Amino acid sequence: MGPVPAVAAIRLAVRTALADHQPGDLVLVACSGGADSLALACATAFVAPRLGLRCGGVSVDHGLQDGSPERAAEVVALLRRRGLDPVGSVAVTVGRAGGPEAAARTARYEALDHFAERYGARCVLLGHTRDDQAETVLLGLARGSGARSLAGMPAVFGPGGRYRRPLLGLPRAATVEACAAEGVQPWLDPHNADPAYTRSRVRHRLLPELAEVLGPGMPEALARTARMLREDTEALDEWAAREYPACEHAEGGLDARRLAELPTAVRRRVIRLAALRSGAPAGTLAASHIEAVDALVTGWRGQGPLQLPGSVEVRRTNGRLAFGASTPPARPAPTRPELTGATSP
């Protein structure tokens, strides 16, 4: 692509992602200091003022490596030099639920939510690229998670469309070229090359092998597949949302007879929607959970109650699926993430 075209392409992607914003809105860039997020921050610092927007940045310190607080402080200083304001770092404690990658992701989004709410940000921009999307599709394929997982990462998600990924249509190489053109030195996260992490193995071993066997256009093809599957998934989700009221039982929960009349793809989405409304977290509600609940409709043999993530219990009783709370184990009181290095609101 070349350095100058890469900078222009990233700036155009940011401008497109912010097209629905109003003058005065605050845009935040989540920046780790890696090439993807650093190129995004530089582009946003250029584009936002020209749209009448304010631009800030936040770096999340996961505390997983030696020197991570100092590195977060360096990112904050760099963002300030590029004219972003407010900027700050958020220190988080990464748990163990769902594995190290999932736990870090959960902690990261909680911190970003906290920072965005503190400063009243209209949206938070994330630096995921087309290559990240391809990796996500392959990971979903390995899990056998169905179309929702194969649809990859959405370009816009979160409450009110808070999170946006402007770079999903661009290759990772473009961000490296843009950083060189902007005169900034990205940080190389050793975790990204650590074979202990599944995504790292996909990135450095599986994708190159696929490109050698099937051709160099694999990341683009996988990202295109994700985009088409997302369109199909969103259409089915809308169908399920329309059917949901008709499936509600007068005594609460869902009417098993009405559910059984729906196509499988729609029925399972209605069940998923009921589980989410009952408190099951979307990030841990897997296809296997939904299939087990679906068996209460299509293969009812007097099975006992099922336990879903988020301490949600599902049982079939008197022709309906009842969703309720199970008794969760005692847990320590949560602590709010520590905010450091931020300018005042």
UniProtKB/TrEMBL annotation:
* Gene Ontology molecular function: ATP binding; tRNA(Ile)-lysidine synthase activity
Annotated region (Disordered), positions in chain = 321-345
Q: Does the keyword ATP-binding apply?
A: yes
Annotated InterPro entries: Rossmann-like_a/b/a_fold, TilS/TtcA_N, tRNA_Ile_lys_synt, tRNA_Ile_lys_synt_N, tRNA_Ile_lys_synt_subst-bd
Q: What is its main location?
A: cytoplasm
**One GO term describing the cellular component:** cytoplasm
The residues that the entry says bind ATP are S32, G33, G34, A35, D36, S37
Q: Which reaction does it catalyse?
A: cytidine(34) in tRNA(Ile2) + L-lysine + ATP = lysidine(34) in tRNA(Ile2) + AMP + diphosphate + H(+)
Its EC number(s): 6.3.4.19
Instruction: Please give the Gene3D superfamilies that the UniProt record associates with this protein.
Output: 1.20.59.20, HUPs
Localization: Cytoplasm
One Pfam family of this protein, by short name? TilS
Q: Which domain of life is it from?
A: Bacteria
Domain tRNA(Ile)-lysidine synthase substrate-binding: start-end pairs: 254-321
- According to the entry, every stretch annotated as the tRNA(Ile)-lysidine/2-thiocytidine synthase N-terminal domain falls at 27-205
Keyword vocabulary terms for this entry: ATP-binding, Cytoplasm, Ligase, Nucleotide-binding, tRNA processing
Biological processes annotated in GO: tRNA modification
Alphabetical list of HAMAP family matching this protein: tRNA_Ile_lys_synt
Q: What is known of its domains?
A: The N-terminal region contains the highly conserved SGGXDS motif, predicted to be a P-loop motif involved in ATP binding.
Which family, according to UniProt?
Belongs to the tRNA(Ile)-lysidine synthase family.
Record's function text? Ligates lysine onto the cytidine present at position 34 of the AUA codon-specific tRNA(Ile) that contains the anticodon CAU, in an ATP-dependent manner. Cytidine is converted to lysidine, thus changing the amino acid specificity of the tRNA from methionine to isoleucine.
The name on file for this protein is tRNA(Ile)-lysidine synthase
Q: Which organism is it from?
A: Actinospica durhamensis
Q: What is the lineage of its organism?
A: Bacteria, Bacillati, Actinomycetota, Actinomycetes, Catenulisporales
